[in-house]
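Handoff note, outgoing to incoming analyst
You'll be picking up this chain. Sequence as last confirmed:
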Amino acid sequence: MNAMGVRWTAEQVLALAPDEASRRAGSGLGTAGPWSETGCGDGAVWGLCKGGGSAPYRTVVDTTAPAYSCGCPGRKLPCEHALGLLLLRAADGIAAEDSPAPDWAARWLAARRGRTEGTGGETGGPGAVADPEAARRRAERRAARITAGAQELEQRLADLLRGGLAAAGQAGYGLWEETAARMVDAQAPGLAGRVRELGAIPGSGPGWPVRLLEECALTHLLDRAWLAADRLPVPFATTVRTRVGLTAPADGVPVRDHWLVLAQYDAADARLTTRRIWLHGTTTGRTALLLSYGAAGRAPRLALPVGALLDGELTPHTGAGQVRAEPGEHFVPVPGPVAPPAGGPVGAALDAYSHALGEDPWLDSWPVTLSGVVPARGEYGWQLADADGREAVPLTPAAQSRSGLWRLLAVSGGAPVTVFGECGHRGFSPLAAWSPETPGETVPLL
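Most recent structure output, in case you need it:
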């Protein structure tokens, strides 16, 4: 069966949209009216979409990655025309099945697949020549700059505690931003990010001095761990280097599996948009996190449809408690039953998060699957409780204010459900749910 033998549903297609405006525009193009010369085959779908000018937009989607190309002037990925084309396909609106691609689509597909398979991508192919000695000297110079930055940050934290936390609320954000800029100069973006988080805490609401003290302690721990990294166990030292901002290679053993796309969501700041995609290996039982980035105002390139089952290969990163992985070049939709990940009670999930914190104290959250839980009101708002009422975990403040909470309540209807999400010190953030009546249907909660 070719890659187009399994069709994405309309819901899965719309989950690829970078924003609500793209969803609406793509939905309007999901009918046959604006399209001509559509077809699909060899893991791709293509067509001509009538646009504002005299010439139609040439649109092609490589569903094995997925990747998109369109002649429109839009900067979003996927654009509304790519979404509309995939929606047309989902609705059986493309008559030419398994047809040869037109020249313009074939050229783009060949060039894209040639780059990723034949040349090793943008970082250079097998023939690229590296200078190991020059790379070693660069790494040593950067490590020295990070060490100087960590020592300076230690002094900043000492000054803060010596002057009292209350003074932090009067100093303003400028001093923190200046310190963060110094960490950027030291080529330690991880430390810079932690400093900016520290600067946002003073005056952020009741109890902020306690939160500031907690985050200062974690930042101090990271500083000291970096300064002693050569004496740490190798997996933990790798985690420390990643946390200060050094890029960790994806040098684990590649894992081939059928991957269920559990969730996808974006987090953006003034500088960067980060997309997090959670996958579950149906054979290995492995949970993996893919990260994709886009410059401010631009959507990351990688997008996978939530609920889809994809055949592909992931290469994991190494390090203590590491779940991040890098995708291979092709993810091919495959048929088959899509069961939710095997979960457990609330206590087991909290134990897993506690163990992960022992390996990486700077974790924001940890992926867990809860089974047989019921959403219910608790003392501090909504929570997920074991069906027998033995234990419960509160939902994060952000999760309690999202529309996904009402989807979760609708899926449950008061009955136990299976929920995948991220467990952190602020509570549990549900990302996907499955009901006992329709265990093969992944319901996104974002």
